[in-house]
Amino acid sequence: MNCSRVQDSFIDYQDGALPADESASLRAHLASCPTCQREWAALQEMTRRLDALPVAEPGPRLRENFYAMLETHQREADAPSPFALARGRLDRFFAALLPAQPALQFAFALALLLGGLFAGRHYLAQPAAVPDDGAKAELAALKAQVNSMGQLVTYSLLQQQSTSDRLKTVLTAMDLKSPDRKVLTDLVGALAFDPSINVRLSAVEALAQHADDSLVRAGVLSALPRERAPLVQVAMIELLTDARDRSAAPVFEKLSRDEATDRNVRDAARRALAVLRLPVEPASVPSATLRPSVKPALT
Amino acid sequence: MILAHVTQFRVPSRPAAASLPVAVEATSDHELMIAVRAGEIRRLGELFERYHKPLYGFFVRLTNQPSVGEDLVQIVFYRILKYRHTYRDEGKFSAWIYHLARKVAADHFRKHAATPTPTDPADLVEQPAAEPQPSEQAATAEDVVLLRSALARLPLEHREVLVLSRLQHLEHKEIAKLLDCSVGAVKVRAHRALKELREVYFKIRKEKAA
Hints:
Chain A is mainly α. Helices cover 72% and strands 0% of the residues of chain A.
């Protein structure tokens, strides 16, 4: 055993926790080593002093305070909380309400289940009904409404462009030799809905080249009663007259008699009616006479 | 013979302190605490009678302030009541109560970090000198004051291990559990603390003599 190991074992030796053989070798080392003897003596001395330190006694206040605190806690633990009281009352209420015997409880549960099933059948039995004819018609109307709504959205999108942009679009369409249905529909839409007179006028001009198309004529004819600008009205009447569209006659008739309509428009409608009633080819009718001499300014 | 002289001085490691609870009691600490946990709050009184003096000694030695010691003991028992539901079935009561006591002491030191533990022996004069132990190595009053101030000058961790092992008479195994370290580390720390205490003790004595 060397000194440091011996000194490390001092605490255990002091406690009597060192095995007998180690204790023996420690004693043997101590007998021959003055350094460790001093060390051991010092350790023993300090331990003795420490152990001799008088035990501090607490004052009576500590005990009084403790027992006061204990009583408070015991009372708190004994007194049931208001929550527990309420719960107990609630439990008793339900206990009185419900049967206590297991068999009765089972019967009660079964009755509840059957009652629920019956109620479910009674109130929820009607499955989704097969749509009848009325509903079908309603559905179709709804569909049409949605479709027209889509068109309106397209037109309003068209209207979001500036007037000159829309005009440009219409003029481009005019240059097309054989425009497809879509372009013609767009033109008719512009004629019917565009807020600018110039755009509508250009649309009429563009459509005039395709007046032999029944779709174009029908479109112009349906737009005519709603048109309020005399210039455009006259242009439309001219278009329909040139195409010799007899189905336009009732509309012309109505226009020519409407006091609210512009005088020039009424005249044009009257003349167009006369042209339509002619049995001969309309090629000789000078369309230029119908056209107003003054062009409107660009809006 | 020096050796014979030295070895005969071997101090019994477990002096039967009057304040220590005697192991053979009708009800063990553990059973009492289980009863307290179950709602028999008043049974904590028995545990108080067994432990308040050792705890008080622990706090007084650790803080060197007798008045603070009483307050801290009260706090420990308050926490026992407050956290009684956390006491575990396989727990050991003495370990638990010292665990709480260490936390209370740590809280105290944290709160009063600005005011160091008094090291001036004059601070301790107000404490009534306890009756000297009826042993042949009875310390003189002056010796006691010296030792107390030496103890107060030790770093807290050394002071703590000395208080726990030499004054509270806890086993090294228990202290290791309490300090969360190995038994070997506790012994090394205890040995070093004793050596340091001796150095400080003689230094103070020298200063006083000068």
